[in-house]
C-alpha cells in the first residue's frame, strides 16, 4: 500500500492508472477505522482494479462545540487494518494541503437536504461535507465511490451533488455494518462506557421494531408508531434530537405510509451522539 499526502501526486498517479485501463474504487474516511469502513474497502477491492482510501479529519464539517480536537486519530492502527484488506493507495493530506491559505470556495447544498435531520442541529455541516468530498473526487478522478448507509443523509447529499454537478463518479451505498447486539458501527462508539454501550443497543432495536410493526400493518397511523418508538427510546438514551420517517431520495418528512421509506434517528447516550437508520420497502 502506497501512502500519499500530496493531492497533486495522487491525482497524477491515478491518471496514469486509468490510462492503463485500470478502474478506481474510492473510500473516503476520517480514520479510526472499524469493520464498517473495512467492508467498504473490501467492496472497492472486489469491484475495481485499484482501491484508494482517504483519511482526513475535515475541520469544515465540525460545528461549534463539536469534537474536532478530540476526534480519534490512530493512523498507525488504520494503516495496519488497510493492509489486511488490500488497499492500494492511502491518501492522508494535511489541513493546509486541502485548505491552503486564501481558500475561498465551498459547495452549498439545497436547504431541503442540508438543513433537515442532522443538518438542523449541525448548521454548516453538510456544506463542509459536500466541499471536502467534491475536492476528494476531483483529486481522485473518475471512480466508484463507496459510502455506508449508516450515514444516510450524508450519502443522500453526496449522491445528489454528484448527479447535479455531472461528476464522473458512480456512487455505491453499502449496507450498515452492526456490532453483535445491533449497534451501528461508528468511530464514536469508542467513546461509550460499557453501560452506555449496553443502553445504545436500544437505538437499533427500536428502529427495527418500528419497521416490523409498520410492515405487519400494525394498527395506528405513522404518528402513533413514532410516538411508541419515542417512548421506548427515551427509556434508554439521554437525549433524542430527532426520530423521523422520510422519503429516501428527497428526505421530505412523511406523515403517511408509502412504498419506500427511511426511518432515521439521532440520539445522545451519555455525551456521545449516535445516528442510525433503517430502510423500509413495503
In summary, what is this structure?
The protein is an alpha/beta fold and 282 residues long. 40% of the residues lie in helices and 21% in strands.
Describe this structure in words.
The chain is of the alpha/beta class. The model has no long low-confidence stretch (mean pLDDT 96). 40% of the residues lie in helices and 21% in strands. A six-stranded parallel beta sheet has the order 1-4-3-2-5-6, with helices on both faces. A three-stranded antiparallel beta sheet has the order 7-8-9, covered by helices on one side. The protein contains ten helices and nine strands. It starts with a strand and ends with a strand. Helix 7 crosses helix 8 and helix 9 (194-215) runs antiparallel to helix 10. It folds into two domains: 2-174, 3-Layer(aba) Sandwich (Rossmann fold); 187-281, Pantoate-beta-alanine ligase, C-terminal domain (Pantoate--beta-alanine Ligase, Chain: A,domain 2, 2-Layer Sandwich). The protein has helices at 7-19, 35-47, 75-84, 95-98, 111-114, 118-121, 125-140, 152-164, 194-215, 222-234; strands spanning 2-4, 24-29, 50-55, 89-91, 143-148, 169-174, 239-246, 260-269, 272-281.
- The percent of residues in helical segments reads 25-40%
Gross morphology is globular
Spatial strand arrangement across the major sheet:
1-4-3-2-5-6
What name is given to the CATH topology of the largest domain? Rossmann fold
Order of helices and strands: EHEHEHEHHHHEHEHHEEE
End-to-end distance = 43 Å
Specify the number of helices: 10
**Count of the domains:** 2
- Share in β-strands: 15-25%
CATH arch. level architecture of the largest domain: 3-Layer(aba) Sandwich
How many beta-strand elements?
9
Task: Give start-end ranges of low-pLDDT stretches.
Answer: none
> What structural category do the secondary elements indicate?
alpha/beta
- Mean pLDDT figure: 96
Name of the CATH homologous superfamily of the largest domain: HUPs
Amino acid at each position: 500500500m502506497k501512502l500519499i499526502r500530496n493531492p497533486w501526486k495522487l491525482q497524477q498517479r491515478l491518471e496514469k492508472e486509468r490510462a492503463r485501463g485500470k478502474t478506481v474504487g474510492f473510500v473516503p474516511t476520517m480514520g479510526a477505522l472499524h469493520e464498517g469502513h473495512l467492508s467498504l474497502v473490501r467492496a472497492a477491492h472486489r469491484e475495481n482494479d485499484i482501491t484508494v482510501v482517504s483519511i482526513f479529519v475535515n475541520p469544515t464539517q465540525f460545528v461549534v462545540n463539536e469534537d474536532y480536537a478530540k476526534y480519534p486519530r490512530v493512523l498507525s492502527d488504520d494503516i495496519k487494518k488497510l493492509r489486511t484488506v488490500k488497499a492500494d493507495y492511502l491518501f492522508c493530506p494535511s489541513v493546509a494541503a486541502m485548505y491552503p491559505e486564501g481558500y475561498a470556495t465551498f459547495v452549498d447544498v439545497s436547504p431541503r437536504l442540508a438543513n433537515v435531520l442532522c443538518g438542523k442541529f449541525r448548521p454548516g455541516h453538510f456544506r463542509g461535507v459536500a466541499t471536502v468530498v467534491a475536492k476528494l473526487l476531483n483529486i481522485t478522478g473518475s471512480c466508484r465511490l463507496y459510502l455506508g448507509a449508516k450515514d444516510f443523509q450524508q450519502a443522500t447529499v453526496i449522491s445528489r451533488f454528484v448527479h447535479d454537478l455531472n461528476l464522473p463518479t458512480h456512487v455505491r451505498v453499502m449496507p450498515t455494518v452492526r456490532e453483535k447486539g445491533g449497534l451501528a458501527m461508528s468511530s464514536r462508539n469508542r467513546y461509550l462506557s460499557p453501560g452506555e454501550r449496553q443502553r445504545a443497543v436500544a437505538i437499533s432495536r427500536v428502529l427495527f421494531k418500528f419497521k416490523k410493526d409498520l410492515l405487519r400493518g400494525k394498527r395506528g397511523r405513522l404518528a402513533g408508531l413514532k410516538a411508541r418508538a419515542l417512548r421506548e427510546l427515551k427509556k434508554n438514551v439521554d437525549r433524542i434530537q430527532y426520530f423521523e420517517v422520510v422519503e429516501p431520495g428527497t428526505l421530505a418528512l412523511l406523515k403517511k405510509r408509502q412504498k419506500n421509506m427511511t426511518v432515521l434517528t439521532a440520539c445522545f447516550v451519555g455525551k456521545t451522539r449516535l445516528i442510525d437508520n433503517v430502510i423500509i420497502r413495503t
